[in-house]
Design brief:
The chain is mainly alpha-helical. The chain is about 55% helix and about 5% strand. The longest helix has 25 residues. The termini are far apart. The mean pLDDT is about 75. Bound molecules: zinc ion (ZN).
Length: about 140
């Protein structure tokens, strides 16, 4: 009995102290300066970590161009076959013919897809445009 009462009292006083410390730090500009200096020191001592972090962050923001994609290379890789309808694509057609070869992003850039060989395929211009329209229709709110 005596013990538990003492325990409760000390818990309470500890909590009071914790609250006091928090307030003091929040309102103490020196403490804030110290935290800022600490963060700066960390950045200086870990430049690799920091640049990795920045790179990842930047990649997220700009939906990164992962690599330079040469469309002709993709068309050759896909054997001049449309990745959407499966029909052959005539490489001699001229823009803006609807069967004109175009570079399709399998997962659209606007949906978080990346500009890479893995996420691109050859598609007829018209198939590419239809796919875009379909995505817009099905995914509109
Ligand atoms: Zn097609």
């Amino acid at each position: 009995m005596e013990y538990s009462r003492q325990y409760l009292r000390s818990e309470k006083s500890r909590e009071r102290h914790r609250g006091y410390d928090r307030d003091r730090y929040a309102n103490n500009p020196e403490r804030r300066e110290y935290n800022l200096a600490l963060a700066k020191k960390f950045r200086q001592e870990n430049p690799d970590k920091m640049s990795d972090y920045v790179k990842k962050r930047r990649a997220k923001v700009t939906q990164v161009t992962v690599e330079d994609v040469d469309s002709q290379t993709v068309y050759e890789r896909d054997n001049w076959t449309c990745g959407i309808c499966g029909e052959p694509v005539d490489r001699l057609l001229k823009w803006p013919h609807e069967q004109y070869p175009s570079l399709d992003h399998i997962t659209p850039i606007s949906k978080g897809g990346e500009h890479s060989y893995a996420n691109t395929q050859l598609a007829h211009l018209v198939c590419n445009m239809r796919k875009g329209a379909r995505l817009d229709l099905t995914e509109a709110p």
